[in-house]
Amino acid sequence: MTDGKDNKNDEGTYVLRLFITGASPNSVRAVDNLKAFCEKYLKDKYRLEIVDVHQQPAIAQKEQIIALPLLIKKSPAPERRLIGDLSDTEKLMDCFRITV
Fold first, then answer.
1. β-strand pairing of 14-20 with 46-52
2. Which CDD domains would you find in this protein's record (predicted)?
3. Strand order of the sheet with strand 14-20?
């Protein structure tokens, strides 16, 4: 699943990968919280891939996933990882280096 304008990694575009476990309550909350955050703070400046580790275990293994849900901010550098339902807006803002 991809959100955002396009599939190019343009400068200023956040490339995000969210690993979830099906429709578990924490996974659903993580998806909802991340989408709401991105629409508020990163509107039209992000590309989001949602990976269900049950359906795509090879990708999860390659990324060495140890806990779920897990958000990986691939770019811009540095890569950052956040574990949990992504309800802590302050941690997300720190991850994306957003100041209000």
1. parallel
2. KaiB_like
3. 2-3, 46-52, 14-20, 70-75, 80-83
CA distance linking residue 86 with residue 98, whole number of Å: 15
pLDDT in tens, 2-38: 443 333 445 689 999 999 999 999 999 999 999 999 9
CA distance 44 to 56: 27
Per residue in 79-92, pLDDT (tens digit) is 999 999 999 999 99
Q: Is residue 76 part of a domain?
A: yes
DSSP 79: P
DSSP H or E stretch at residue 26: helix 25-41
For tokens 């699943």, what's the residue? 1
Number of domains in the chain: 1
Mean pLDDT value across residues 46-60 = 95
Range of the domain at 79: 2-6+13-95
